[in-house]
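ping. complex inputs:
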Amino acid sequence: MITRFLVRHKMAIIYGSSLALLLFLLKWLEWRLVILDHAVQVYSGAIAILFTGLGIWLALKLARPKVKTIVVEKEVMVTRQPAGTINEKEITRLGLSTRELEVLHLMAEGLSNQEIAGRLFLSLNTIKTHSSNIFEKLDVRRRTQAVEQARKLNII
Amino acid sequence: MITRFLVRHKMAIIYGSSLALLLFLLKWLEWRLVILDHAVQVYSGAIAILFTGLGIWLALKLARPKVKTIVVEKEVMVTRQPAGTINEKEITRLGLSTRELEVLHLMAEGLSNQEIAGRLFLSLNTIKTHSSNIFEKLDVRRRTQAVEQARKLNII
DNA sequence: CTGAAAATCACCCGAAAGTATGACTCCACA
DNA sequence: TGTGGAGTCATACTTTCGGGTGATTTTCAG
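pong. complex structure:
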């Protein structure tokens, strides 16, 4: 219990002791100086030097080390499918229609809905409907995810 | 600004305060116990405080910052393209920064800006800025095109 | 220390994307 | 013959994107 307290407040105790010691020393010096009635400058100079040293010591002792965190990205191989034609089954399983597949392809090329509409001679709304259906069937919420999913499933 | 200063020099401030308090206490005790000419003591106390502060300041100012480096290894999935490493040059050629590359990766995973922001602990606006810069550097206008382009150039 | 680049964040605004719902046609199939 | 799926289109609405601009902070090399 007491040991723990001592350990935990080691710094405080050390400081307190040294402070007490210093004050003692000062008292003593003061006494001598009063008797000798010597220069106050010497006295204050000593104090200044001593306490400057103390300050430096404490600062160096207590200064928090800056923590710098470096994140190293470690590459990990991921197994990629042999890139063959493993797609047809998935398409039928997901129930993607021809039109939807067309739209999905154009989507994967980065075309906007408007551009897809122009390419397929359809209205913008139709493309929106198709893409909504595609998202639902692929279980995603955005075109980018749809493309990602389609790549994973090798259906494009 | 001021808050930051306080935080950074917390220890110094704490020490300074406690020192001041201690001296105060000692002075008070001394004053009560001994009715003497205490001008010298006040004087030396002031000097002590001042020069301790100076010491702390000097130490904090002059000491080389202790830097503690923590290396955190972060595993990152990487799909190694069959053609080998054809990417690094393109990245530097396009001038894509680290952050931009990160955003680009998450973009390719189909995440929305909001989700990317959450993943990287950034604000939505920051992600928007990054993606805008990415689009400009890749010479595209939409995230889907950016992903497409990135795949073509093997930089993801 | 200084300046440039990178990174972060904000606000505004218009465009694009996405949701929800309904309707119409065509065509195969029971 | 009518039923249902696919395809088409529309309106109205909300959300997300993307462009433009400007500001501050961090980082880093000279």
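DSSP finds eight helices and one strand in chain A.
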